[in-house]
Design brief:
By secondary structure, the chain is an all-alpha fold. The protein is 77% helix and 0% strand. Helix 10 packs parallel to helix 13 and helix 11 (307-342) runs parallel beside helix 14.
Length: 419
Amino acid sequence: MVNTAHLSVESAPPIQIPFRFFLTAPLFGVLFALLLSWSGADLVESRWSPQLIGALHLLNIGVLMMMVSGVLFQMLPVVGGIQFPWIGGLSRLLHLSLTAGTLLLSAGMIFSQPPLLSLALWGVMLGLIPYLLLFFWLLLRIAAPPEWARLLRYTLPFLLLLAGLGVMLLMGWSQEGVALQRNWTDIHAVWGLGGWFTLLLMATSFQLIPMFQVTPPFPDWMKQWVVPLVALSLLLWGVTSNQVLLMLAAVGIMLYGSVTLYLLRQRKRKIFDVTVRFWQIALFSLALGATLLLLSLLIKQIIPSWLALFWIFAVLLPMLLGMVLKIAPFLVFLHLQQQMIRDPSQMGNLAALPNLFQILPTRWGKILLGLYLAAAVTVLLAFFYPVLLQITGIILFFLFSWLGWIVYHCYQVYNARAL
């Protein structure tokens, strides 16, 4: 059951646009898994290791940013009524930019090649700047955006600042005479993982969770105050280094995680749903991570060194895996349905359309969840037995390979039935 009220399905972009990003993201995950399985504990020996930085950006940009871009290109027109001009060319430019830039950045870091880092700088900026400027302009000019789209405005400064700090850090790594400001690293990580990605997922979840899971709506106070509170606190913390502001952001994130977990328990369909399990894992980890951050700031006045890795693997990755498992088959069904509606001669075949469970069998999602849980267990054990990180890499290889197969299969179902 999907609540499709208020969707502008006729505004959906061509299915190739979101799937271009969805099909590419697992490939970067496979690259990261191969690197981890080869290097093992040596990869995470130091947080300042260029190899670790290069590897993590295979995930941060190659997987997370790639998936988020595909989701936004689909959601903004269909759910938000926001039309991207030149959407075909812009999506291809951004996809090429993220792909080439991530490969160059990671290779430059892993193999200590500053010229590749300089190329990466231009590669990422080539697509990101036009996308960011157009995204910002569209969100500001729309007269009456839906609540979740209005909240997206709070994420844009973080993407801009994230890119700016990334450029400065890259120049420090690649350009002689440019000092590497290591003290910017924590700001870059918090504004990226906590500001851009987390606020983006919070804002979109206000629409996606009630729509896909038919839950009660989010309380008005949360939609009106929590995202602005977290955004403003994180921005001011980055400028002032006042840890009270970071604590305030942590409290807001804890509230969001707790309330959303409660809403998922109130959903109308109580049957087992893999996406719900992924979201529950992500939301529990979100609340737990924010709580541990708050305690660490209160007791030790520091950000835990492991928090970034925890946020990537325990919060952002399962949330996005859950989204893709819902969005990919839904897009296939939606586009096939709209093709038949536009062709009167095909209206009699509407009943023959495959349903969501035929497009993506439930057991395939369960396999993905099992692989994720196996990887999570080995990561936890690796704190005590670092050699297990190589096992984690092998499991992640199968996880991202299976994710790639799932997305590819959904896309092939569309191609086989498209008119």
